[in-house]
Q: What sequence folds into this?
């Protein structure tokens, strides 16, 4: 019996058993860490956090234990790969200090991940600051990119990869082929980026099981990034669907409103026709009675009837102007003529309200090219609004002057004024504070003036009343 041979065989079997046991423990440990990291990164939607977590897992002693890791992401705009993050010491001395500090403080991998923003801060991490300055072409004629494009698994970086490479000088300085490996990161079959790892300080060889472990960790990152991409696409599609739904609801409301307005328009057209013509006839008869009667009491009654009929006629006119598109008959007329015509129509209102009128108009006629009837109606509405604001009397001021190519008009009253909260709404359709008004006068006036390329602004004035400031284009 060969005792020596037996002893050697037992020793060899024992060593193999120990190595296999250690290997199994290492695999179990890595898988355990991988599961925990996977559970962590699948919970978050922050891409930067995902990337930092994997780099920490790759370099942590509890993880894969590589000395350093460099992450490069494709820049679609410039067709290049740019350094995004890096983790690891800059030299042997710093490496010893960091590893000793982690051991002394009992820092685990998840403690480091929790403080990832601090770990990757440029003012703390020299390597992270340097990697952001590194970029190189994404062209497949670049040897390293060519190999990454055609590979799904990590591989060792060889001497020729660096020698033939057009990598930046900064990257060549920090790569050591004997202790370096690279792993592609693929999203949807395309090369999203890659991670370079090395053991430049420990000089530990990188074996096949190290590459398999790296493949596992990068796979976790890929799954998380795929999930993030799918969620982003889902959210984008959901947002589009919500917008389409809102738009569909809006279009439906517009269609229903259009149908309602069409029906209202037909009814309004009928009402205007049925009321306006008889009203004009009645108005003519009452005016004849007012002029010819010598009965003072009858004169008072007819005057009151005329006032109400004029208000009704003006309401119908405003409804028609608001409801239907206007056709414009432009002509050159003097601005003073329009003001005089509008004031003449309101003479009875001015007298009945005991209003004092103050006019300050240019001596020379200022001509404007407008639709006479429509613009007179606009001035009538504005002036009527000012007169109605002074039921107990007051002062109505009309100032006008030519400034360059415009005529600037201000209609000022000393009436009740407009509440501050109502100023923004004063020209809204159907907004009114009067009990006997539809709230269309200023809306119609504003539409007519703006249709003539003019502008209108309504403000409170120092008298406590309202100032309507207008601008119209003057004809040279």
A:
């Amino acid at each position: 019996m060969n005792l020596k041979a037996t002893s050697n065989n037992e020793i060899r079997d024992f060593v193999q058993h120990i190595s296999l046991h250690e290997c199994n423990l290492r695999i179990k440990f890595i898988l355990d860490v991988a599961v925990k990291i996977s559970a962590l990164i699948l919970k978050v939607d922050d891409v930067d956090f995902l990337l930092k977590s994997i780099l920490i897992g790759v370099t942590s002693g509890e993880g894969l234990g590589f000395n350093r890791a460099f992450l490069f992401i494709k820049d679609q705009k410039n067709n290049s790969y740019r350094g995004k993050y890096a983790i690891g010491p800059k030299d042997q001395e710093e490496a010893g200090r960091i590893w000793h500090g982690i051991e002394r403080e009992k820092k685990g991998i998840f403690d480091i991940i929790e403080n990832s923003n601090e770990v990757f801060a440029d003012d703390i991490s020299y390597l992270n600051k340097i990697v952001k300055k590194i970029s190189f072409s994404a062209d497949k004629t670049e040897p390293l990119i060519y190999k990454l494009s055609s590979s799904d698994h990590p591989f060792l970086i060889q001497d020729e990869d660096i020698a033939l490479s057009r990598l930046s000088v900064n990257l060549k300085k920090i790569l050591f082929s004997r202790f370096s490996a690279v792993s592609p990161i693929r999203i949807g079959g395309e090369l999203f980026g890659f991670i370079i790892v090395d053991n430049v300080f420990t000089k530990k060889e990188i074996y096949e099981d190290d590459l398999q472990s790296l493949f596992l960790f990068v796979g976790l990152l890929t799954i998380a990034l795929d999930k993030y991409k799918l969620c982003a696409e889902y959210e984008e599609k959901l947002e589009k669907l919500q917008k389409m739904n809102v738009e569909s609801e809006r279009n439906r409301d517009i269609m229903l409103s259009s149908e309602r307005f069409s029906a209202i328009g037909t009814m309004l057209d009928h009402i205007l026709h049925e009321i306006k013509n008889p009203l004009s006839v009645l108005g003519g008869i009452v005016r004849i009675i007012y002029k010819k009667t010598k009965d003072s009491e009858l004169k008072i009654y007819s005057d009151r009837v005329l006032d109400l009929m004029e208000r009704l006629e003006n309401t119908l006119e405003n409804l028609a102007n608001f409801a239907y598109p206007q056709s414009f008959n432009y002509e050159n007329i003097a601005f003073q003529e329009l003001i005089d015509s509008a004031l003449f129509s309101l003479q009875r209102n001015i007298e009945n309200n005991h209003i004092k009128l103050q006019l300050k108009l240019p001596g020379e006629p200022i001509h404007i090219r407008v639709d006479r009837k429509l613009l007179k109606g606009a001035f009538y509405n504005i002036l009527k609004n000012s007169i109605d604001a002074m039921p107990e009397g007051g002062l109505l001021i009309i100032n006008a002057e030519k400034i360059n190519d415009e005529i600037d008009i201000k209609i000022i009253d000393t009436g009740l004024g407009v509440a501050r909260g109502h100023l923004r709404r004063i020209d809204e359709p159907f907004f009114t504070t009067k009990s006997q008004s539809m709230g269309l006068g200023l809306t119609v006036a504003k539409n007519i003036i703006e249709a003539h390329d003019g502008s209108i602004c309504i403000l409170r004035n120092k008298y406590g009343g309202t100032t309507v400031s207008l601008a119209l284009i003057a004809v040279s």
Remarks:
- The two ends are 130 Å apart (CA to CA).
- The mean pLDDT is 75.
- The longest strand covers residues 394-403.
- Residues 105 and 333 are 92 Å apart (CA to CA).
